[in-house]
Amino acid sequence: ILTRVDIQTEPQLLLTDKSAEFEAHPLPSPYGIHYDWRFGDGSPPMQGRRVAHTYAQSGIFNVCVSVNNTISSMEACAEVFVFEEIADLTAKSSSPTELHSPTVVQARLGSGNNITWTFSMGDGEIYTTSTPHMSHKYVTEGNYTVNVTAANAVSSGWTLVAVQVFVFQVVRMEPSGCVQERILVNFQAWVSGNASAHLYEWSFGDGSPNETHQGNPTVSHTYWTSGKYRLFLRLSSGVNKATKANFFNWVCVQPALTNISLSLDKSHYAVGEKISFQARAQPESNYSY
Protein backbone atom coordinates (compact mmCIF):
# COMPACT_ATOMS: atom_id res chain seq x y z
CA ILE A 1 0.00 0.00 0.00
CA LEU A 2 1.35 3.40 -1.01
CA THR A 3 2.04 5.63 1.96
CA ARG A 4 3.75 8.68 0.51
CA VAL A 5 4.93 10.32 -2.75
CA ASP A 6 7.59 13.02 -3.03
CA ILE A 7 8.38 15.12 -6.12
CA GLN A 8 11.91 16.14 -7.03
CA THR A 9 13.08 18.41 -9.85
CA GLU A 10 16.38 18.70 -11.68
CA PRO A 11 17.51 21.44 -11.67
CA GLN A 12 15.94 22.77 -8.49
CA LEU A 13 15.59 26.28 -9.98
CA LEU A 14 13.35 26.15 -13.05
CA LEU A 15 13.76 28.48 -16.05
CA THR A 16 11.39 29.41 -18.84
CA ASP A 17 12.12 27.66 -22.15
CA LYS A 18 14.57 25.30 -20.40
CA SER A 19 13.75 21.61 -20.00
CA ALA A 20 13.56 20.24 -16.45
CA GLU A 21 13.30 16.67 -15.13
CA PHE A 22 10.49 15.72 -12.73
CA GLU A 23 10.78 12.50 -10.72
CA ALA A 24 8.32 10.83 -8.37
CA HIS A 25 9.53 8.98 -5.27
CA PRO A 26 6.75 6.78 -3.89
CA LEU A 27 7.02 4.86 -0.64
CA PRO A 28 7.42 2.09 0.25
CA SER A 29 8.44 1.00 -3.31
CA PRO A 30 8.58 2.61 -6.79
CA TYR A 31 7.95 -0.67 -8.66
CA GLY A 32 4.77 -1.71 -10.42
CA ILE A 33 3.33 1.79 -10.30
CA HIS A 34 1.55 3.85 -12.96
CA TYR A 35 2.34 7.59 -12.91
CA ASP A 36 0.24 10.47 -14.33
CA TRP A 37 1.73 14.01 -14.33
CA ARG A 38 -0.05 17.36 -14.64
CA PHE A 39 2.07 20.53 -14.75
CA GLY A 40 -0.53 23.24 -14.16
CA ASP A 41 0.16 25.16 -17.35
CA GLY A 42 -2.45 23.63 -19.61
CA SER A 43 -0.07 21.16 -21.23
CA PRO A 44 -1.17 17.52 -21.85
CA PRO A 45 -0.63 14.99 -19.03
CA MET A 46 2.48 12.80 -19.14
CA GLN A 47 3.19 9.29 -17.89
CA GLY A 48 6.28 7.79 -16.29
CA ARG A 49 8.19 7.94 -13.06
CA ARG A 50 10.69 10.46 -14.51
CA VAL A 51 9.49 12.96 -17.15
CA ALA A 52 10.84 16.09 -18.82
CA HIS A 53 8.82 19.28 -19.17
CA THR A 54 9.48 22.83 -20.37
CA TYR A 55 7.53 25.85 -19.12
CA ALA A 56 6.95 28.55 -21.72
CA GLN A 57 6.02 31.20 -19.16
CA SER A 58 7.33 32.29 -15.79
CA GLY A 59 5.34 32.21 -12.59
CA ILE A 60 4.01 29.83 -9.96
CA PHE A 61 2.63 26.46 -11.09
CA ASN A 62 1.11 23.50 -9.26
CA VAL A 63 2.71 20.20 -10.35
CA CYS A 64 0.78 17.05 -9.45
CA VAL A 65 1.55 13.36 -9.90
CA SER A 66 -1.02 10.56 -9.41
CA VAL A 67 0.37 7.13 -8.58
CA ASN A 68 -1.44 3.78 -8.75
CA ASN A 69 -0.16 0.26 -8.03
CA THR A 70 -3.53 -1.53 -8.58
CA ILE A 71 -4.13 -2.01 -4.85
CA SER A 72 -3.76 1.64 -3.76
CA SER A 73 -3.40 5.09 -5.22
CA MET A 74 -2.62 8.57 -4.08
CA GLU A 75 -1.72 12.02 -5.41
CA ALA A 76 1.03 14.46 -4.48
CA CYS A 77 1.33 18.09 -5.57
CA ALA A 78 4.17 20.60 -5.32
CA GLU A 79 4.19 24.32 -5.99
CA VAL A 80 7.08 25.30 -8.29
CA PHE A 81 8.35 28.74 -9.25
CA VAL A 82 9.57 29.22 -12.80
CA PHE A 83 12.15 31.99 -13.17
CA GLU A 84 12.83 34.18 -16.17
CA GLU A 85 16.39 35.26 -16.88
CA ILE A 86 17.14 38.98 -16.68
CA ALA A 87 17.71 40.68 -20.05
CA ASP A 88 17.67 44.14 -21.65
CA LEU A 89 18.06 46.20 -18.48
CA THR A 90 17.75 49.96 -19.08
CA ALA A 91 17.39 52.93 -16.72
CA LYS A 92 16.74 56.67 -16.87
CA SER A 93 16.53 59.53 -14.40
CA SER A 94 14.76 62.84 -13.90
CA SER A 95 18.15 64.60 -14.09
CA PRO A 96 19.09 67.41 -14.23
CA THR A 97 17.55 68.09 -10.83
CA GLU A 98 17.80 70.88 -8.30
CA LEU A 99 19.82 70.47 -5.14
CA HIS A 100 17.63 69.12 -2.26
CA SER A 101 14.86 68.17 -4.74
CA PRO A 102 14.07 64.49 -5.46
CA THR A 103 16.01 62.76 -8.20
CA VAL A 104 14.01 59.79 -9.51
CA VAL A 105 15.74 56.81 -11.18
CA GLN A 106 13.47 54.45 -13.13
CA ALA A 107 14.63 51.03 -14.39
CA ARG A 108 13.06 48.69 -16.91
CA LEU A 109 13.61 45.07 -17.98
CA GLY A 110 12.95 43.33 -21.27
CA SER A 111 12.56 40.07 -19.32
CA GLY A 112 13.05 38.79 -15.78
CA ASN A 113 10.91 38.15 -12.70
CA ASN A 114 11.15 37.99 -8.91
CA ILE A 115 13.69 40.82 -9.07
CA THR A 116 15.66 42.38 -6.24
CA TRP A 117 16.76 45.90 -7.22
CA THR A 118 19.83 47.70 -5.90
CA PHE A 119 20.35 51.43 -6.49
CA SER A 120 23.83 52.76 -5.68
CA MET A 121 23.31 56.52 -5.98
CA GLY A 122 26.95 57.57 -6.40
CA ASP A 123 27.13 59.56 -3.16
CA GLY A 124 27.52 56.63 -0.79
CA GLU A 125 23.80 55.88 -0.43
CA ILE A 126 22.66 52.37 -1.48
CA TYR A 127 19.05 51.20 -1.58
CA THR A 128 17.70 47.64 -1.98
CA THR A 129 14.06 47.29 -3.00
CA SER A 130 11.57 45.09 -4.85
CA THR A 131 10.41 47.95 -7.09
CA PRO A 132 12.28 49.22 -10.20
CA HIS A 133 12.38 52.88 -9.17
CA MET A 134 14.03 55.01 -6.49
CA SER A 135 13.74 58.62 -5.31
CA HIS A 136 16.75 60.26 -3.67
CA LYS A 137 17.74 63.77 -2.50
CA TYR A 138 21.37 64.78 -2.98
CA VAL A 139 22.88 67.18 -0.43
CA THR A 140 25.73 68.40 -2.65
CA GLU A 141 25.64 69.69 -6.21
CA GLY A 142 27.64 67.80 -8.81
CA ASN A 143 27.62 64.98 -11.36
CA TYR A 144 26.90 61.49 -10.09
CA THR A 145 26.87 57.99 -11.60
CA VAL A 146 24.05 55.74 -10.39
CA ASN A 147 24.57 51.96 -10.62
CA VAL A 148 21.31 50.05 -11.04
CA THR A 149 21.48 46.28 -10.46
CA ALA A 150 18.70 43.75 -11.03
CA ALA A 151 19.09 40.22 -9.65
CA ASN A 152 17.06 37.07 -9.15
CA ALA A 153 17.99 33.51 -8.18
CA VAL A 154 19.21 32.59 -11.68
CA SER A 155 20.70 35.75 -13.21
CA SER A 156 21.66 39.39 -12.74
CA GLY A 157 22.37 42.54 -14.74
CA TRP A 158 23.46 46.14 -14.17
CA THR A 159 23.54 49.49 -15.92
CA LEU A 160 24.78 53.03 -15.21
CA VAL A 161 22.85 56.31 -15.23
CA ALA A 162 24.44 59.77 -15.24
CA VAL A 163 22.81 62.29 -12.87
CA GLN A 164 23.41 66.04 -12.69
CA VAL A 165 22.46 67.97 -9.54
CA PHE A 166 22.60 71.78 -9.80
CA VAL A 167 22.11 74.86 -7.67
CA PHE A 168 19.07 76.80 -8.86
CA GLN A 169 20.32 80.17 -10.17
CA VAL A 170 20.50 82.68 -12.99
CA VAL A 171 23.94 82.26 -14.50
CA ARG A 172 24.02 85.40 -16.67
CA MET A 173 21.90 87.76 -18.73
CA GLU A 174 22.48 89.03 -22.26
CA PRO A 175 23.01 91.56 -23.70
CA SER A 176 25.12 92.95 -20.87
CA GLY A 177 26.43 96.14 -22.51
CA CYS A 178 24.71 99.24 -23.86
CA VAL A 179 21.62 99.07 -26.04
CA GLN A 180 20.01 101.60 -28.34
CA GLU A 181 16.97 103.62 -27.36
CA ARG A 182 13.70 103.30 -29.33
CA ILE A 183 14.77 99.87 -30.63
CA LEU A 184 13.21 96.56 -29.58
CA VAL A 185 15.88 94.68 -27.63
CA ASN A 186 15.81 90.92 -26.98
CA PHE A 187 17.04 89.96 -23.51
CA GLN A 188 17.88 86.36 -22.57
CA ALA A 189 18.52 84.77 -19.19
CA TRP A 190 20.86 81.79 -18.92
CA VAL A 191 19.69 79.61 -16.05
CA SER A 192 20.61 76.29 -14.45
CA GLY A 193 18.44 73.24 -14.99
CA ASN A 194 15.55 72.92 -17.42
CA ALA A 195 14.93 76.46 -18.65
CA SER A 196 11.54 75.54 -20.13
CA ALA A 197 10.18 74.53 -16.69
CA HIS A 198 10.74 77.83 -14.85
CA LEU A 199 8.68 80.99 -14.38
CA TYR A 200 10.31 84.31 -15.40
CA GLU A 201 9.18 87.66 -13.93
CA TRP A 202 10.85 90.67 -15.60
CA SER A 203 11.02 94.28 -14.36
CA PHE A 204 12.61 96.80 -16.73
CA GLY A 205 13.23 99.72 -14.35
CA ASP A 206 11.68 102.37 -16.62
CA GLY A 207 8.16 102.45 -15.17
CA SER A 208 6.72 100.07 -17.76
CA PRO A 209 4.57 97.10 -16.62
CA ASN A 210 6.32 93.93 -15.48
CA GLU A 211 6.15 90.88 -17.72
CA THR A 212 5.78 87.24 -16.68
CA HIS A 213 6.61 84.31 -18.95
CA GLN A 214 6.26 80.59 -18.27
CA GLY A 215 9.02 78.40 -19.69
CA ASN A 216 10.58 81.11 -21.88
CA PRO A 217 13.88 82.67 -20.74
CA THR A 218 13.70 85.50 -23.32
CA VAL A 219 11.86 88.81 -23.31
CA SER A 220 11.69 91.80 -25.66
CA HIS A 221 11.53 95.42 -24.53
CA THR A 222 11.97 98.95 -25.92
CA TYR A 223 13.59 101.72 -23.86
CA TRP A 224 12.33 105.07 -25.17
CA THR A 225 14.85 107.37 -23.52
CA SER A 226 18.56 107.07 -22.87
CA GLY A 227 19.85 106.46 -19.36
CA LYS A 228 20.77 103.71 -16.95
CA TYR A 229 18.06 101.23 -15.97
CA ARG A 230 17.92 98.36 -13.50
CA LEU A 231 16.72 95.24 -15.36
CA PHE A 232 15.50 92.78 -12.73
CA LEU A 233 14.56 89.10 -13.09
CA ARG A 234 12.84 86.94 -10.47
CA LEU A 235 13.12 83.25 -11.37
CA SER A 236 10.77 80.66 -9.86
CA SER A 237 11.60 76.97 -10.01
CA GLY A 238 9.42 74.69 -12.11
CA VAL A 239 10.16 71.81 -9.71
CA ASN A 240 9.73 73.52 -6.36
CA LYS A 241 7.61 76.68 -6.50
CA ALA A 242 9.06 77.90 -3.20
CA THR A 243 12.56 78.02 -4.71
CA LYS A 244 13.37 81.41 -6.24
CA ALA A 245 16.43 83.23 -7.57
CA ASN A 246 16.91 86.97 -8.19
CA PHE A 247 19.22 88.59 -10.71
CA PHE A 248 19.67 92.12 -12.08
CA ASN A 249 21.76 93.98 -14.62
CA TRP A 250 22.30 97.70 -15.11
CA VAL A 251 21.27 98.43 -18.68
CA CYS A 252 22.96 101.36 -20.41
CA VAL A 253 20.57 102.87 -22.97
CA GLN A 254 22.00 105.30 -25.53
CA PRO A 255 20.59 107.11 -28.56
CA ALA A 256 21.64 106.26 -32.09
CA LEU A 257 24.67 108.33 -33.10
CA THR A 258 23.73 110.60 -36.00
CA ASN A 259 26.79 112.82 -36.37
CA ILE A 260 30.30 113.25 -35.01
CA SER A 261 32.60 116.22 -35.68
CA LEU A 262 36.25 116.93 -34.84
CA SER A 263 37.57 120.48 -34.31
CA LEU A 264 40.90 122.22 -33.50
CA ASP A 265 41.44 125.44 -31.60
CA LYS A 266 43.56 126.88 -34.47
CA SER A 267 44.55 125.96 -37.99
CA HIS A 268 48.39 125.97 -37.77
CA TYR A 269 50.82 124.45 -35.23
CA ALA A 270 54.57 124.49 -34.82
CA VAL A 271 56.63 121.31 -34.67
CA GLY A 272 56.62 119.96 -31.11
CA GLU A 273 53.60 122.04 -30.13
CA LYS A 274 50.78 120.21 -28.31
CA ILE A 275 47.62 119.94 -30.39
CA SER A 276 44.18 119.74 -28.73
CA PHE A 277 41.33 117.96 -30.52
CA GLN A 278 37.65 118.44 -29.64
CA ALA A 279 35.11 115.79 -30.64
CA ARG A 280 31.35 116.38 -30.57
CA ALA A 281 28.71 113.69 -31.06
CA GLN A 282 25.04 114.23 -31.79
CA PRO A 283 22.62 113.78 -30.23
CA GLU A 284 24.27 114.60 -26.92
CA SER A 285 24.69 111.67 -24.54
CA ASN A 286 27.20 110.09 -22.20
CA TYR A 287 29.36 108.50 -24.91
CA SER A 288 32.67 106.69 -24.57
CA TYR A 289 35.49 108.12 -26.70
From TrEMBL:
Parts of the chain that traverse the membrane: none
Topological category with respect to the lipid bilayer: Multi-pass membrane protein
The keyword Coiled coil belongs to this UniProt entry's keyword annotation: no
Annotated InterPro entries: Ig-like_fold, PKD/Chitinase_dom, PKD_dom, PKD_dom_sf
GO biological process: calcium ion transport
Keywords in alphabetical order: Cell membrane, Cell projection, Cilium, Disulfide bond, Glycoprotein, Membrane, Repeat, Transmembrane, Transmembrane helix
Cell location: Cell membrane; Cell projection, Cilium
Name assigned to this protein: Polycystic kidney disease 1
Species of the source: Dissostichus eleginoides
